[in-house]
Design brief:
The chain is about 65% helix and about 0% strand. The protein contains 27 helices and no strands. Helix 20 packs parallel to helix 22. The protein is elongated, with a radius of gyration of 31 Å. Pfam families: SPG48, TPR_AP5Z1_C.
Length: about 575
């Protein structure tokens, strides 16, 4: 007998004995030689191509029995089973066709019974990501719904282990995005910092997360324990910390936030669930989460989450169909003002949300007409907070730039135009912008509110002028609206002068169409506004010279060049 045959027999006996030995029935991973033996047998099956089917057939019954025992006794196990189960899962994936073993149930069992309890173990977490990256193509082809189904659990890997697993997680992260997970995945990515906060508080309250299934909290017979954890997770205090009259105040906050806590710490994708962010109680809870010092883990995830959003939005623009993107945009609008209260994090995330929204409108201008109701609602919230004002500004720009959805959506364009009119007249009649913002009344604050109002008015009158250029039937109403602004002589001259300039443009339809008209050739126009086709300079008049370089200038032209200097001559 050769050395290889003796090694084979030794490792096979080790595995067979472990599968039969009742002393290891409830904890197979406690046998220190078992993991090494299973790895060696798997290597033999891969290397011995001539006899691989026979070897696989001899090994499979013992390995399968060990897998079943390890997953069934997970709650009684004192040793981590993750590494052993991952080696067995690799065997199932490599040789499943030989022994007619469907790996899908085994993979799901691993996620539910093992990874849900051992995701906080750095060794198991790293091995899991290595396993997923090695088998990524096979998993996506053979089991396309597996990773999207368990994306909440897999997000816990990166939330808890942070930068140590960042590169490995980013490699397989695109596999989490599918039609079934596309919409629910977005709120989970935005809420990654909250996942960290919740997990850290659970660990401080209940001890190590390794070996405990957090999802089982949802089925606990002691809901008051969950309420205590929820209160501690978001307010930094326990139920007993308050005074005699604190019970009523805290209980209302806990009742509102409790469904959110369960939603954040779930392990499987069960669809797009409502997250109760609109409640004032939850807003207070989010603010309280920043009162304590941020942990290193939280700091890391505040940097990682925007990178994951970059990948998510890139996939969305490249691969997602229009119906999914159209359904995502209202969610994006709602979450723009409900983010984890960290200044840098909010800035980075909001910038990405707005950039994706504008890119989506650029790709499919019809979205503006389809989403006219949520757009109108957001325009009506322009006074509520600075972040909602910024969202309204971007929506005004998109509505004007894309003509309310295009020339074929005249009814939607009219409704959007009316909403812009209302916003304009409200700003003209009173300085409502910022009246509900919570800040001290001082000189800096007044200047900021004045600047914000002027910026909003500039965006609104530009959108009105552009809509009227797209849809000529709106021109009379646009002239009336812009005329009121031009005559108002607001303290900020940029606003009424812009309105006056647009009124002047409307007197020359050709120039108006060139400057404010559509920028997409698909609308039947071959030019882009604000650009000059110098090659046509000697054969026809150029109406779209960027006239704005002469704006607000009085008297003789300030430039010292003539058109003969810039238009090429024939030689």
């Amino acid at each position: 007998m050769s050395d290889r045959e003796r090694d084979w027999d030794f490792y096979l006996r080790t595995v067979a004995n472990s599968a039969r030995d009742s002393s290891f029935a409830n904890d197979p991973a406690s046998d220190p030689s078992l993991l090494h033996a299973v790895k060696k047998l798997c290597d033999f099956c891969r290397l011995e191509e001539k006899y691989s089917e026979d070897l696989v057939a001899r090994v499979y019954p013992h390995i399968n029995k060990i897998f079943q025992r390890a997953t069934a006794s997970q709650t009684q196990s004192t040793s981590p089973n993750g590494i052993l189960l991952l080696v067995i899962l690799q065997f199932f994936l490599d040789f499943g066709e030989v022994v007619l073993h469907d790996a899908d149930p085994s993979l799901r069992t691993f996620f539910r019974s093992c990874l849900s309890r051992e995701f906080a173990d750095p060794v198991v977490a790293a091995a899991t990501l290595d396993f997923l990256n090695v088998n990524k193509n096979k998993l996506l082809i053979s089991f396309p719904n597996l990773l999207p189904q368990f994306f909440p659990l897999l997000l816990k890997l990166i939330a808890w282990n942070g930068e140590k697993l960042e590169k490995a997680f980013l490699k397989f992260f695109p596999g989490l995005v599918s039609p079934g997970s596309f919409l629910p995945l977005f709120p989970s990515l935005v809420d990654l910092p909250l996942i960290v906060v919740a997990l850290e508080k659970v660990e401080r309250s209940s001890g190590s997360l390794i070996g405990s299934n957090i999802a089982s909290i949802q089925k606990s017979a002691a809901p008051e324990m969950l309420l205590a954890l929820m209160d501690e997770a978001y307010t930094g205090s326990t139920i007993g910390d308050g005074g005699g009259d604190s019970e009523s105040e805290e209980s209302s906050t806990i009742d509102v936030a409790d469904p959110l806590f369960l939603e954040i710490l779930k392990d499987e994708n069960d669809g797009l669930a409502e997250r109760h962010w609109t409640s004032p109680g939850v807003a207070a809870v989010l603010q309280a989460a920043t009162n304590s010092l941020q942990s290193d883990r939280l700091k890391q995830i505040l940097n990682i989450a925007p990178q994951l959003l970059d990948v998510y939005f890139t996939i969305a623009l490249r691969a997602a169909n229009n119906s999914l993107i159209c359904a995502l945009i209202p969610i994006l609008m709602a979450r723009n003002s409900t983010l984890f209260p960290d200044k840098n994090y909010m800035y980075e995330v909001r910038r990405r949300l707005l950039e994706f929204m504008l890119a989506s409108f650029q790709r499919s201008p019809d979205f503006i007409a389809l989403l006219k109701k949520p757009i109108i609602d957001r325009l009506g919230e322009a006074y509520d907070s600075p972040e909602k004002t910024e969202l309204a500004l971007q929506l005004c720009w998109a509505v004007g730039e894309h003509g309310g959805g295009g020339g074929s959506h005249k009814d939607a364009a009219r409704e959007l135009f009316e909403s812009l009119e209302l916003l304009l007249y409200e700003n003209l009649s009173s300085s409502r912008l910022g009246l509900r913002w919570e800040s001290a009344i001082n000189s800096d604050n007044r200047n900021f509110r004045k600047s914000s109002q002027s910026r909003l008015l500039c965006f609104v009158i530009t959108a009105i002028a552009k809509l009227a250029t797209y849809h000529r039937e709106l021109l009379p109403r646009a002239r009336v609206a812009l005329g009121k602004v031009a005559r108002s002589r607001l303290s900020d001259s940029r606003v009424w002068r812009r309105a006056r300039d647009y009124l002047g443009l409307m007197d020359d339809p050709a120039i108006c169409l060139s400057v404010l008209g559509p920028s997409r050739p698909s609308y039947g126009h071959t030019h882009n506004p604000g650009t000059v086709s110098w090659n046509d300079g000697r054969t026809k008049m150029i109406a779209h010279i960027p006239f704005y370089i002469l704006g607000e200038q009085e008297g003789p032209p300030f430039h010292d060049f003539s058109f003969s200097d810039v238009i090429p001559r024939k030689r």
